[in-house]
Structures are given as structure tokens and as C-alpha cells.
Hints:
single chain, alpha+beta, 3 helices
Amino acid sequence: MFAYFSVLEVTVTNDEWVADYVANSNRLVERHGGKYLARTTNHDRLEGDRESPALRIVIGWPTKQSAYEFMEDPEYVPHLNARTAGSISHHALIEAKDDLAQ
Length: 102
């Protein structure tokens, strides 16, 4: 069971970073207790009219701290910098709870 989810929208603008990023990100996500649940270009817009990203990614995390530790991992930071320089990326960390449940 995951307590938090990273939800990313990524559109690659320069693909020089992609192979190295993919080769290293699995191991680094797992090191911090995370798991890729989806990494796909296959997605449909059900609502809204903004431009869809090329890639959507969902990562499950056991704790909020584990997600932040991943993002700050000195081994990951160069890959993060390459991704953000070579893409348009948006990343949200979402707690797995329902604030509207009664």
C-alpha cells in the first residue's frame, strides 16, 4: 500500500538525457521504497482543454519523506537536472487520502 503518489507530466524537448535517466531511475526509486506504477504515452484526456503531455508517470511511495529523499538523493540530482533541462515537466506529490469522504 502506498501513502503518497508522484504524478508527473513530461514532454521531452531534448532526448539526450532519456536513456541515462531511464537506466538509473528504476534503481533509485526502488532504493527509496518507491515503485513505478505507470510510465506511458498511452493516455486519454477525459476533461479540460490544455495541451496533453507526451508522457504521464505515476510513482507510489510508502511515505512523504521517502519521495523527498528520492528527489534530494545526490545520485539522482544530476538526472533530475537533465530531465528538467530537456523537458517540460510538472510533478505533484499527492497524499493517498480522501479529504472529501464523510
